[in-house]
Amino acid sequence: MARLNVLLLGSDSFSVYIANTLSKFSHVISSVTITTLTPECTLAKSVAAATNPDTQQGQPPSPSPTTCSSLSNRTPSICPVEISPDVPIRTIEWQQVKRGEGSIDVLIAASFGAKIPSSAIRRLTSQIECKKVGESETRPIRAINLHGSWLPFASGPAPLHAQLQGGSEWLGVTVHEVSPKLDRGRVLARAGVPVEPADAAGLGTMQAAAARLTNTMLPRVLSLIQSS
Fold first, then answer.
1. Is the omega angle on the peptide bond into residue 60 within 30 degrees of 0, that is, cis?
2. Domains observed in the chain
3. At 160, which helix (H) or strand (E)?
4. Fewer beta carbons under 10 A from the terminal one: N or C of the chain?
């Protein structure tokens, strides 16, 4: 079965946990073809990490957790050059997000904090033929989101923060396909557990708990993507 080129879109510690997990899977191949804006990095890893712009906390900017992890693991880190409320994210040279050998097979968003351009999704899904399976048709999965709640509960941005602030007693994670409408894509997997007191100590512990929960689903989801 074919192995995958994965581009992980992320910006926080939850994203870093997922990147570390993906790098250990045999489902993903050993390199990815994508432009990196970080010269210190190499293309030696199976997962490229795209991150939101480093936060301005004095000079120079303070790097996001994803950027720090990418640098320490020598994983490609691609930083958006422009984000504003009324302009789609301009990053990663999205024209490079394409199908074919040596390019991206699937996008995985995990706390990315920005909408993936429809043009990038179209590049992945264009000219894909559905496969006939019995009486139904299946189509390849090209972009998924790892959402930190049991959708539709806490849909939208910062779901883990919303659950933490709301004192939620239940932690869920939903894996769904990326769709034009935010958090409305087809659900591929979902899991939930009671929130332990230690997990509710802060956002960092909540992110770690959500990552552990996500990791229980990732092997099955990646196999589903491969078979599609």
1. yes
2. 6-227 (3.40.50.170)
3. helix 159-165
4. N
